[in-house]
Predict the structure.
Amino acid sequence: MAVEKPVYSAMEKAYQAIRQEILGNKLRSGDPVPVERFVGELGLSRTPVREAILRLHREGLIDVRPRMGTFVSHLDIRQIRDMYQLRRLLEGHAAKLAAVQVPLDALRALRAELASFATHGPALDCSGMSGSGKKVHQLILEFCGNQALADMLRSMQDHFARFRSVSLEIPEKVISSHAEHLAILAALEAGLGEQAEKLIHQHFDHAAQLLLESLLATPSRPGAASVVARAVL
């Protein structure tokens, strides 16, 4: 039996299309939002596209500047720091809870998947490695046993999807995160909740440091200047 695809309203169709380009870093921070392109590509009128833009504005992904235009919001330095600090605390606790609940077979299967990736040379696959690493965090949320905590962490996913897209341009960050993911899985597999929590804290501290240092130190890197924040350090 064929699986039915969700039926989107015109506004929802525009919202999903624009949102995916922002989260995938195809539309970068500071870029003008090409309203006419979306109108043409999606076969919609301007009204649903503008409604979608207002929704994305409320969610913090788009800036609407009077008499200037509509732009993808900047990745603010202070926001990056705050978001990573909050997530390290919340997900650290979630990992501590998950260590005594997550099924061993799920942990072992994911560890084998991560271990299959080359960490250097022509076989290096940063996108695939990052995608498998994301499953570590999903597993923690799924088995932390606290729905409110899991929902709170999931509400942050759009922001971290943007961070992850930028991070894919920094291979050393992906490789270091890969090693950290394997260590986190080992702690979970051993049922060491406090160790898993500590490793999550270190993981997000390290991820934030590498991302911020890269964005601030190499503004000439393609795309970097557009994502460096507006906030004062």
